[in-house]
User: Fold this.
Amino acid sequence: MTVAAGPLPLDVAAIRGDFAILGRTVRDGKPLVYLDSGATSQRPRQVLDAERTFLETSNAAVHRGAHQLSEEATDAYEGARARIASFVGVDQEEVVFTKNATEGINLVAYAMSNSSTSGPSAARFRLGPGDEVVITEVEHHANLVPWQQVCERTGATLRWFGVTSDGRVDLSELDSLVNERTKVVAFTHQSNVSGAITPVARIVKRAKEVGALTVLDACQSVPHMPVDFRALDVDFAVFSGHKMLGPSGIGVLYGRFELLSAMPPFITGGSMIELVRMEGSTFAPPPQRFEAGVPMTSQAIGLAAAVDYLSVVGLERVHAHEMALTAAALRGLSEVDGVHIVGPTDLTERGGAVSFVIDGVHAHDAGQVLDSLGVEIRVGHHCAWPLHRKLGVAASVRASFYLYNTLEEVDVLVEAVREAKRFFGVA
Amino acid sequence: MQLEQMYQEIILDHYKNPHRRGLRDPYDAEVHHVNPTCGDEVTLRVKLEGSGAEAKVVDVSYDAQGCSISQAATSVLTDLVVDGTVGESFAKHEEFLRLMQGRGKVEPDEDVLEDGIAFAGVAKYPARVKCALLGWMAFKDAVARVEGTES
Assistant:
């Protein structure tokens, strides 16, 4: 008996059976072809059931009260944290729940600017004139605007890596951009537009040489491939629940425990305190320090269920499946005259987001034709306006794949692109 | 097919052969508007004669990048407002706005909107209404700036 070289293929039909929404039709009876998981993924029955079961049996405010429901809710909430932490290779105390990934990045950025008014233990997070924050031109606005803002507040200087013509972070000036003035390097693990995967190890190595902190936007990687933050050796990382089969309203910030322990809070209030007197307060250890107020609870339970679901399927298999879809999309789209891929045209260091432009058909118009055929994709600049500007593209069409998509759907996409060209008279 | 309801021939004609496109001198005000959700942009100039509601719209010129809807709507706009008064142009804007915000349930007045009635189908797609209004927002802003500098 021979052993298969790669991961076993997914049973996509069985998987699709868990996602009721995939069975619906849109726009006059067209079967839904959902290719917008890069924006938000759909949720399987198991995730919805977990939330519902929790709410119907154990719902209570966590970390307060001594009644049974509160105990059960707290156990469920902290149990969810442990499963999610283990999913990305880190400890439970290093996982902070936020509203979304955007809030996670803002948390780090605000904690850094708050550090200038905090005690000596926070000195290492301080930013001021002469300090530099380095980001990249491929970033989603979520990992760009917060750093612009923190630089405006503190007087630090924002610098950035450029982008190559195929939408990758250009590291040719790594050693000069990341230098002894650099305090933070914030970058995406995988571009939400081009799908290009960033060489994390190279950046982390350089950042460590100069003593800069690293912040990884893992929104487009954690849902789609095995990711171990400890192995990547980043200081902070964020990802979103709703992009990985989980609920909206929950994101995750990972921070090395030693850093979280020294970092001042961002949002303050109940739950995050150690001691409160009228004259002043002290704060709880992480992660509680960063979770003020009654947290989202059923969302955490739902996200843990999503993590379980993905773990059972296996992230290697998910990734392999998406690569097969991506290969088919790149091949199919490249056969259509006038279609240009915004991003790498082969599978080297890339994930399953395929953005493109069509000569003579604006992305919005293409999206409208695709929508009329049931193909739901993203159009516009995908919250990465500087990247589009740099590549000379006003707006692009993005198809993004997940474990529930099929090769047949890729065929429908390619045929729909042909139809868009026909409709607008672009032969 | 719903698509043809939205992309009426009139819209596609204006898209392929836009009226009064390009930036021209002389002008009294120039504005730059963007649609932040998609990145579409328009730079638009107006030239007026006279002042107040009775001022005559002598020219509207523009440079834009965007989808067929935003391009065609701006082209139609110039047809509707050039050679009329500012007061008339604002009335037409009101009628166009009423049509676009009507979710496809408003019967447009062809005497007022002329080719603009072709956008009735667009009003059924909330995500595209902003596209149709981009040029109009720029026009109103430009006129307001002219009046602002005069007063």
In short: The first strand of chain B starts at residue 29 and ends at 35. Chain B touches chain A through 20 residues (CB under 8 Å).
